[in-house]
Amino acid sequence: MLCNNNNINIEAMRRHSTIRTISAPTVVARNSTPVAYPGSPLHLAVEFCANPPAHAARWLHGDRVYTPGNQYGNTVLAYGVTDLPTPYCKEARLTYVSMHERVPRTFYFIVSSPGGVAEAIFKVNFTMRYRTIANAIDDEEEELSEPEEIHFPVFDSSNKSRPLTKYLSLLIYSIIFFLYRTC
């Protein structure tokens, strides 16, 4: 069909035009229940896809908002968004440098585009690490260079030495239990 006024073939334009669909973005957390230990860093990562492209992405944590590509003091690194091999897909990462028990345990990542909003939720499993009995008492006290040796007197194997053996075993067990509980 030929339009007389502008000499444009409308039917040809309809065949060659592409239909642009607008869809909501998608977000996938790489690990939605990460484990964090006291004093250790926490690393979070998401992949998100948006066509049309996303115009905003944010990390939410407690009452704080982190924008990708920024560093927040010495405690939070919100790395810049990077492209993934899949078209319209990107990756965002966040590092909380040193976790401790007072840090809120839920993190959110929110992305928005003209098609809508999507989120990923991270529920952090904060776990106290079991400390092994080391050759150091505390960071503030001196470190032993070699383990100390404890020598016990040798008794004969008759029945009269058994109460002492039981007492020594109980004493050693109590010391180990005390050290374990204080670590």
Automatic annotation (TrEMBL):
The lineage of its organism: Eukaryota, Metazoa, Ecdysozoa, Arthropoda, Hexapoda. This is Uncharacterized protein.
